Amino acid sequence: xxxxxxxxxxxxxxxxxxxxxxxxxxxxxxxxxxxxxxxxxxxxxxxxxxxxxxxxxxxxxxxxxxxxxxxxxxxxxxxxxxxxxxxxxxxxxxxxxxxxxxxxxxxxxxxxxxxxxxxxxxxxxxxxxxxxxxxxxxxxxxxxxxxxxxxxxxxxxxxxxxxx
Amino acid sequence: xxxxxxxxxxxxxxxxxxxxxxxxxxxxxxxxxxxxxxxxxxxxxxxxxxxxxxxxxxxxxxxxxxxxxxxxxxxxxxxxxxxxxxxxxxxxxxxxxxxxxxxxxxxxxxxxxxxxxxxxxxxxxxxxxxxxxxxxxxxxxxxxxxxxxxxxxxxxxxxxxxxxxxxxxxxxxxxxxxxxxxxxxxxxxxxxxxxxxxxxxxxxxxxxxxxxxxxxxxxxxxxxxxxxxxxxxxxxxxxxxxxxxxxxxxxxxxxxxxxxxxxxxxxxxxxxxxxxxxxxxxxxxxxxxxxxxxxxxxxxxxxxxxxxxxxxxxxxxxxxxxxxxxxxxxxxxx
Lengths: 164, 334
Fold this sequence. Notes:
- The structure holds two protein chains of two kinds.
- Chain A is α+β, with helices and mostly antiparallel strands.
- Chain A has helices spanning 5-13, 15-22, 32-45, 78-94, 122-140, 159-163, and strands at residues 53-55, 58-60, 62-63, 67-74, 100-107, 115-118.
- In chain A, helix 1 packs antiparallel against helix 2 (15-22) and helix 2 crosses helix 5 (122-140).
- Chain B is built from ten helices and twelve strands.
- The interface between A and B is medium-sized, with 14 and 21 residues.
């Protein structure tokens, strides 16, 4: 299997979601939040030709001479967004394209900033390498980890499936 | 996924794509149907459609169900699957090999439980002659199902449950709606006409709900998996028949909203609902599909239609995570 940015994000957000998504039991289509995210994405894409770039298994929102820019609807999970962006930076770097990471949030609920910056270091690159293997191993396991009810679950597209 | 996501076409006409929406044209004029929110369309009369429409419906993930003159289900336009998981399909087939009887028994137990609930209402209202059947459902059926059975034996118990259920109608329904015997293609009396149409709608509804999950429609557990039918739909719709189809029938008949003289068309060898009868029955059926209850586990309001999809999720959970499959029960809601 190929690790994607979405999987990296989910791995930090919720391992169960990561497993289900990796095994193509993807339920996001029914979620209003995902629909809003997609519309925001399409709105940004309008009139912006080099908006989305696909390289191997990843899709990048925007690339400028200095930055790789990742858009997020909200700052609900900054940690997950950071690792997703770092993962993209590493894939680009492996292709000989070096950029810094910039994450833009459309809604800020948890913090004051709407933009945060991330950058690769030697340690982070090492961690990303381990992470990729960890995700592959986890998603190849026979069953996902059990659902543990959390605040974030109520808004998740997998809520019905996880708790029924 | 609430609200009116279903469109019933009951008159002759033509369904077409019009820009980014749908239009139904008949002798009364044009009816515009916004595509947003529409998940399924029922064609209960002669409706003309073209490929341009199907391409549009496919993109929007809309299923279309077709019925013939006798209200018999003919088939479904089933757009290209949007939710496909190879891994789940493999595991579903494994579940068929290893857990088939567990699932089949759970469904039959679910039918018995839900029939019990529906009839208990009449028992409480002084239909005491229902007692032997209610006791049989509550005490005997679980004992039979606990035995080591093959699929034919489980289907036999299921058949017995339905047969006894049909016989019980004489205790609480007016004489002209008593069923005697289940007769299908075509139905021979008003009750059979209602059951046929109600069950076909429920079956199609279940096809549409399963379409919204990753399950394979052809691998079934209680019914034999066959190539020509979506047999998983037959499995998953069973426990909802008493609660959705029969409750709606009993209510309409006992409140005299549906009457033999006014709402049925009788011919030599068959009996069907007339146009007015069809409208009354289908709108009250649709109302029931959309009515909501507080879900005891999910702690939020859920419609009966969504409850069908939740049963599909339960099946996925058994297949993927080995969580015992217990189909929808009205008893849980109390």
